[in-house]
Amino acid sequence: MAPPARAAGDGERVEEHSFGETAGEIPDESFDPDAASAESPEPGEPDESAEPGGPADELALVRTALEERTLDLQRLQAEFLNYKRRVDRDRELIRENATYQALAPITEVLDTIERAREHGPLEDGFKAVADQLERVVAGLGLTRFGAVGDPFDPTVHEALSHIGEDPDVEVTTCKVIAKAGYRIGDRVVRAAQVLVVDPVDA
Where does the signal sequence lie (predicted)? Predict the structure, then answer.
């Protein structure tokens, strides 16, 4: 016996409806090869999407900071050495000035001792005091200069007078030492006071 026509019609409608739902679930999307190529970086090119601050960047920053600190340290060392030289130079100058101030008046006492020796040997307590004083000033660097026959040098000699000409000299020469000169190192404490003679004019 043949199936009812209504049942057959209902089955066909069901099949058509199911096919329509399946076809609607598949999205209709087109593939663009150019867009895919643009999204992928070329081989060998940096990936701009990568975040900076990797180990290489950190190492470069550390090296730069180290170089800057090294330069700062070298500059500070140079400044310290220059400062130390200035301090040492100033300290030496202060010491020399103090010694100069202390010994300058004593030169007159040494002159008195020398004049006393010209009248004879020193004796007893006066000799002991004179010898000790001369040892002390010598230990402080005070030296005596000026002798008959020295060429006249205006930087260390004070000419009190010209006493004529002398055929035995070729330049202006110290003929008489009125007072000896004293110096500390290269610094003159007191110029030697002298009488000078000039050479005979040719």
Answer: none
Q: Give the closest residue to 176 by CA, choosing from 159, 156, 190.
A: 159
141-202 is a CATH 2.10.109.10 domain:
no
- Please answer whether residues 175 and 148 qualify as being in contact, where contact means their C-beta atoms are separated by less than 8 angstroms: yes
- Give the separation between CA 17 and CA 114, rounded to whole angstroms: 146
- Tens of pLDDT along 35-82? 545 455 555 455 544 455 577 888 888 888 899 999 999 999 999 999
pTM of the predicted model as reported, rounded to 2 decimal places: 0.58
DSSP per-residue codes, 158-175? EEEEEEEEETT-SS-EEE
Q: What strands, in cross-sheet order, belong to the sheet with 192-199?
A: 157-166, 192-199, 173-179
